[in-house]
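Issue 218. Parser rejects a valid record. Input:
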Amino acid sequence: MDDIAPSERELRVQLAGLYRIFHHLGWTELIYNHISAHVPDSDHFLINPYGLAYDEVTASNLVKVDLAGNIVGSSDHPINPAGFVIHSAIHGARHDVGCVAHTHTTAGSAVACQAEGLRGDNFYSCLVADHVAYHDFEGITVREGERARLVASLGDRNFLILRNHGLLACGADVAACFVNLWVLQRACEIQVATDSGGNDPIPIQPEAKAASAKGLEVMMAQAGHGRLEYAALLRRVDRIDPSYKD
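Output the parser choked on:
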């Protein structure tokens, strides 16, 4: 990677680190699903090599692709066609987005299959439920014609539930994308666990929801949007296996 600009090299390390974080959190689906990062000052983005598990992703084997689906430079691997459709659509339309992550976690997919979607009645969901967009299921996302509809569904939001499918989160950078997906995932986990009890959930009053939103602003002002959380998980990855930096 000697011919890669230092800024892209650093982005590759950050993104590969996020793949390892997802692996250790269990947010994986065999060789499927994808996280991408926009390469600054270009129409290119980085995405995982199709066929590798998340704990095999490294800075050097991430694939750089343009918005037309062409691999930029050399790669020993193709990219997931569904990954291209989803990520090229968002990176092409949302220039404020630096990173996009899509998962098929059990809890996320379960909420995606519920007609009501994500309710705002738990600690995490009350923070994001009003900011979640929804996209109706059209089958596996391999048709390029779906890109415009996907972008329209997302709008200017950073949280998207793909109905009957899974979760998607965006962020200005890798750390922000991580913490956005983490909050969305935790909201879904708690909703699914609450529903398994068979009793009606306790509604959250509007005043408490507003207070929570203000509290989140205070927390993020201190920590940066995902910066401390991402760094903490990356340190854990470094203690286990720092080979993602290769």
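Fixed in the parser; the record now loads. The chain has a mean pLDDT of 95.
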